[in-house]
Amino acid sequence: MKKVYSVSELTKRIKESLEATFPQVWVEGEVSNLTRPVSGHLYFTLKDQDAQLQVVMFRQNNRSLSFDMTHGLKIIVCGRISVYERRGNYQLYAEIIEPKGIGALQLAFEQLKEKLQKEGLFDEAHKKEIPFLPRAIGVVTSPTGAAIRDILHIVNRRFNSAHIILNPVQVQGENAAGQIAQAIREFNEHGICDVLIVGRGGGSLEDLWAFNEEIVARAVYDSRIPVISAVGHEIDYTICDFVADLRAPTPSAAAELVVFRKEEWEEKVCLCQESLKRQIKSLIETRRLRLNALRKRYAFRMPLTVLHQYMQRLDEYLGRLSNGVRQAVQAKKSAFRNVVGKLDVLSPLGILSRGYSVSYHKDTRKILRTVADIRVSDFVTTRLQDGTIESKVSKIYKKV
Predict the structure, then answer these.
(1) What's the CA gap between 76 and 80, in Å, rounded?
(2) Among residues 118, 115, 94, which one has the least CA distance to residue 28?
(3) Which helix (H) or strand (E) holds 99?
(4) Right CATH number for 7-101 from 1.10.760.10, 2.40.50.140, 3.90.79.10, 2.40.160.180?
(5) CA 31, 37, 43: angle at the middle one, nearest 5?
(6) What is the pLDDT of residues 65-112, one digit of tens each?
(7) Phi-psi group of 33: left, alpha or beta (phi > 0 → left; psi -120 to 50 → alpha; rest → beta)
(8) 241, 262, 330, 387: least surrounded by Cβ within 10 Å?
(9) Phi and psi (nearest 5°) for 194?
(10) Domain 133-260: which topology?
């Protein structure tokens, strides 16, 4: 007798068979059709040139991803094969995802570096100048690590009066990045330091990873206090190094960069002091020679004679000035008289003295030049040499 399965029964048998055959499998391929619903799960297709496989990674698993999943990324996925019964599709339920050909942390580093670089967090225009001889140096690192011991040793040896303030944090582990970022913000809130050193000693990429977290990068970028990044060894580079105002290859190098050796400055001060003494001595000697030269001059040996000569010369100048003013006044008077004589000749009053008169309309004061300027019964004023006459026009004779 033949066995007839329902769709559900057959699907369940296939699911059990697949799960038993492939309880854990590693598959490599290229990511496509990536979606991220609000649930936080990841859905995508893993494909190669000949086939494709549907993949699901639930939120509790993808939280551990240190890099961003992107279309076209070549990855290796570890998970189990099962069937989604409602659709009858077999798919891979992913538990671990690693980028192919590059470590997950290295990929995350490159992705975050590219993102922050595009935002301008690495631009030189945002770099602040490291202060000269800071009064207080803030340090963000582990209180038990080698970094703080190296910094204290070098600073105390080079400039023992420098004040160091430690804000202790974890430098690796799950909470390290948050603590480092918070310590930087606290220093900025209190404003008690002139410069910050943020770092730790050497280690693997995993050990240094806290300094590659975005939260630390943004705290360094937002800091109003200049930040020196001193993470790991000389060959180690972190995101913190790129954002900081200055990168030091090691914590010890950071201590050397932030304070100068006291003996060097004492030597420079002594050299400046000697140079200043020489310059002052040279200036005094120059002024002394000049003073001696002035003392030998005639004006200093016979001051009254020189004064009398200047007084006599002043009298001469005053005499010349007086004569010049007198001659100028006389010339102006003569010119004025000539002008007055010419004005008298041209003046209407001069014409009147020679027997002429001037008549004008009494009301309009207009000078009468023709008979058309006056009418019968108008009043006329006539000016003579020694007075005026008023008359009324009784008749007008026109020239024919």
Answers:
(1) 13
(2) 94
(3) strand 89-99
(4) 2.40.50.140
(5) 30
(6) 777 777 777 878 888 888 888 888 888 888 888 777 656 667 778 788
(7) left
(8) 387
(9) -95, -20
(10) Rossmann fold (3.40.50)
